[in-house]
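Lecture 7 notes: from sequence to structure.

We start with a single chain of 338 residues. Read the sequence below before looking at the structure.
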Amino acid sequence: MAHLLNNTAIFSPSVARAAASAAKDWSYIDSWLARKFPSNRPPPPFERNADTLKALLALAAANEAADEERALLFRLESETLSQLQKQQPPKDDLLTTTRESILTSLEDSLAREGSTALTSLAQLSLQLNSSPFPNPVSLASDLLSLQSQLAELEQTLARIDILTSYISSESESLSKLSSEIDARPRPSSSHSDDDNGNHDNSSASNSTKTKGYHPHPSLAKSNLAAQRRIRTLSTRIQELSAHASPNLSTENDNKGVSIQDIHAQEQAYLELLQQKKELDAQLAGFAGLPHDIDAAREELENLRIELRRTTERRDSVFEGLVERETPKKGRSGTIGRR
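Now the structure, written as C-alpha cells:
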C-alpha cells in the first residue's frame, strides 16, 4: 500500500506541480539568501519544509517591497534635488549676490562723511589702476609716487618756461640786430660800361655785395677801448693777487691747525696761568712798597726795626706778667702777691 502511495505521489500531476512550485520557490529563496548573505551557506536539508518556505517567502516579499519603496524614495529625492539645483543659482553667484547685498546695506547705513570718504577712496583706486581690493598702504605709496612725479614735472615745466623765455629774448635781440643791420645805409657803386651785358653783370655783383654784413663804424674804437680795459684789469688782478697772497698763506696755516695742537696750547696756557698765580702769591707779601728799589729797601729796614721793637716790647710785657703771677714767700711765712 505504501508502495502504491509512493508511486501515486511520484506520478500524480498535482503532486508534481506542487513539487515543482516548491523547488522553484526554494530556488528563489536560495538566490535571495545568496544575494543578501553572500558568505552564508544555504539552509540545511532538515529545514527545507513548507513552514520554513512560507516564512522565507513572506520575508523575501517584505524585503523586496521595502527595497522598492526605498528605491522609489531615493529616486524621488534625487529628482527633487536636481530640480532644486536647477532653480537655485550657482554657489559663486550666490556668494556674489550675498556680498553685494551686504555691501549695499553697509553703504546705505554710512553717514555722509563716510560715504564721501568711501567714494574718494574708490575714485583714487580707479585713477591709480590698483587692484580691486586695494590696501591703504599701497594707495598711500602710489599717491606719494604720484606726488613725486608731479613735483618733477613741475620742475621740468619751470625749466622749460625759463628756456622758452630765454629763447624768446634771444630771438628778439637777434631780430633787433637784423633790423639794425638792414636799416644801415649801404654804399652806392656805379659802373659805366658800353656793353649792356657787362653793365648788368656789374650791377648784379654790386647788389650781391651790398647785401652782405657791414660792421659798425665805431666797432674798431670799441675794440681798442675794450683791449685797454682788459690790460688794466689784468694788471690790477696781479696786484691784488700779490697783495692777498700773505693772507692766503695765513689762512692756509690756520687751516693746518689740528685739535691736538689746540689741546697742547691749552695745556701750556694753563701751566702759565698756574705760574702766574704762584708769582702773584709771592708778590702779595711786597704789596704797599714803593716802586723805587732804594726807598723800598729803606722802608723794609724801618719795618724790620719796628718789628724788633715790637718783639722786645712783647717779651718785656710777657716777663712782667710772669713775675706778677708767680707766688712769693714773705717774712711772716704768708703767701703774698706783688
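The radius of gyration is 70 Å. Keep this in mind for problem set 3.
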